[in-house]
Write the structure tokens for this entry.
Amino acid sequence: VQLQESGPGLVKSSQTLSLTCTVSGASSAHNPYYWTWIRQPPGKGLEWMGAIGYSGITYYNPSLKNRTAISRDSSKNFFTLQLSAVTPEDTAVYYCALLRRLVVIPGADDDYWGQGTQVTVSS
């Protein structure tokens, strides 16, 4: 399974950040997985942002819930993240992942991650 993030590397404050994750190699065996967005601000740890399950149910980090929307197009094997009203504090490396659980377990050998994409929010 391979994942690739794409989207703008620079966004202005107050705008909406939109990222896409293209997934290849996934099969029905991955239906139990959660299609997930995670970010890591500079000098900080990983932050789980939200996920969407096979059924289409979404789960969000309460601290970001009002600004976050995740959607999925399973027929085309991609899912998206929209983060509204961004500020410079949203500057981070953004990762998409297929996680077996609704939490990040660093080093878990049954999870799949993209390489990450840097997003900078200018003031």
